[in-house]
Amino acid sequence: MSIVVNLDVMLAKRKMSSQELAEKIGITQANLSILKTNKGKAIRFSTLEAICKVLHCTPGDILEYRED
């Protein structure tokens, strides 16, 4: 996969649990887990915006492009 989700890194930097983030952005912990493990095929801009707002970061802090 070329797009890598660095959500674990940002959660660690902000000392926040996955459960806490899921509650704050209004999605299930299962859906957040799918994002964290790079198993998701898409992310809604509204979800990405909510994550960035809560974690005080930019989309580039969460998503990274890596060549295969």
How many extended strands? Answer: 2
Strand order of the largest sheet: 1-2
Total helix count? Answer: 5
Residue share in β-strands? 5-15%
- Element-level helix/strand string: EHHHHHE
- List low-confidence stretches: none
Amino-to-carboxy terminus distance: 7 Å
Shape: globular
Query: Helical percent range?
Result: 55-70%
Secondary structure category: mainly alpha
Overview features:
single chain; about 70 residues; mainly alpha; two-stranded antiparallel ribbon; 2 strands; about 10% strand
Could you explain the architecture of this structure?
This protein has about 70 residues and is mainly α. Helix content is about 55%, strand content about 10%. The protein has helices at about 5-15, 20-25, 30-35, 45-55, 60; strands at about 5, 65. A two-stranded antiparallel ribbon has the order 1-2. Helix 2 (about 20-25) packs across helix 3 (about 30-35). It is globular and about 35 Å long. The model has no long low-confidence stretch (mean pLDDT about 95).
Strand-helix topology:
Elements lengths: L2 E3 L1 H8 L3 H8 L3 H8 L8 H11 L3 H4 E3 L3
Antiparallel strand pairs: 1-2
Helix pairs in contact: 2-3
